[in-house]
Amino acid sequence: xATAVAGLGTMEPKRQWANTAERNSVMFEAQRxxxxxxxxxxxxxxxxxxxxxxxxxxxxxxxxxxxxxxxMLSLFLVVMVYVGQxxxxxxxxxxxxxxxxQMLQLEEQNRQLRLSEAQLSDPGRIDTIAKQLGxxxxxxxxxxxxxxxxxxxxxxxxxxxxxxxxLAVK
Length: 170
Hints:
The N and C termini lie far apart (149 Å). This protein is mainly α. It is built from three helices and no strands.
């Protein structure tokens, strides 16, 4: 039996095959020589019909499967709650950062508006524009001081009052 084919755990050196059919025929012959007796192997096909077989009910297996499914469902729910909270915290963090950026932008805009207000209300600038428009400084009798009783509602009716003009001294 030392003449077995390479690839079957034999002592014959490996050999290159011309094609698969040649290799298969050599292997088949080697296997046939190793069989006991002169009887060839015969294979029969047997058609098995399992359609009438009913699976036996196993209550212990069913109980184990229910426990397993309950455990998996609870684990899944715990993981989903954790993931939901984690994503919610990430979303809240992004929202906070966005609001911080908006607050910084509004503070800068407020600073720019205060600077603009300060520049526009500069008395020297107002005096220059008034002179360009042909306005002069008021005479002492032209300025009327109010006592500060202003009606806060601009749409409310107001009584007209005549205040005597102070005497101008020359």
